[in-house]
Design a protein that fits this description.
The complex is a heterodimer of chains A (112) and B (113). Chain A has 112 residues and is mainly beta. Chain A contains no helices and 11 strands. Classes of the chains: A mainly beta (112), B mainly beta (113).
């Protein structure tokens, strides 16, 4: 049973435009949500997080939105840059045992 | 970079042999995690630890065991490696105080032939 779902395996966006990556979750016990970026042959690196008590968190070009009623979060990258081409993972932490569960990832291609 | 080191970085082993992967941290973080990454599956949690000698199963724990005898080391053991365990394995650490993000190691590429 997949608790964190990223339904788009890949996404292509023109350089300079907005990239929107989506994530859905099924478990109401998650209290923190995170986004990670991964380049080939490297470990995932943390991008941005949001607490379940908030609906928006912004850090530079990256903004994460959380809609708890819909159990949905999204990562907005604006403007998109060539270096943003990578795989993006959505993750959620379960409060009661601190397990961190990841989605399958979305590969983002930034087109010149 | 967070002080987290995985060893070995690459390993080829034969089916049926035991294999141990090591994760070493210098951050004194409480939580340590082992994930595997496979095409089409993303990152799946194998086991994690919330303190010395305290471990719990993740999503795909069958065929794996772990041990944490001291804060800085978290070992993942494949008792009898199978081809389905060919994967890239990542270790992660987290402070867990309030909340901080989990930091990942560089990964271990394991091939079981």
């Amino acid at each position: 049973d997949q608790q964190v779902k990223q339904n788009s395996p890949s996404l292509s966006v023109q350089e300079g435009r907005i990239s929107i990556l989506n994530c859905d979750y099924t478990n109401s016990m998650f209290d923190y949500f995170l986004w990670y970026k991964k380049y080939p042959a490297e470990g995932p690196t943390f991008l941005i997080s949001i607490s379940s008590i908030k609906d928006k968190n912004e850090d530079g070009r990256f903004t994460v939105f959380l809609n708890k009623s819909a159990k949905h979060l999204s990562l907005h990258i604006v403007p998109s840059q060539p270096g943003d081409s990578a795989v993006y993972f959505c993750a959620a932490r379960r409060h009661r045992d601190d397990k961190i569960i990841f989605g399958k990832g979305t590969r983002l291609h930034i087109l010149p | 970079d967070a002080g987290i080191t995985q060893s070995p970085r690459h390993k080829v082993t034969e089916t049926g042999t035991p294999v141990t992967l090591r994760c070493h941290q210098t951050e004194n973080h409480r939580y340590m995690y082992w994930y595997r990454q496979d095409p089409g599956h993303g990152l799946r949690l194998i086991h994690y630890s919330y303190g010395v000698k305290d471990t719990d199963k993740g999503e795909v724990s069958d065929g794996y065991s772990v041990s944490r005898s001291k804060t800085e080391d978290f070992l993942l053991t494949l008792e009898s490696a199978t081809s389905s365990q060919t994967s890239v394995y990542f270790c992660a650490i987290s402070d867990g105080q309030g909340f901080t993000e989990a930091f990942f190691g560089q990964g271990t590429r394991l091939t079981v032939v």
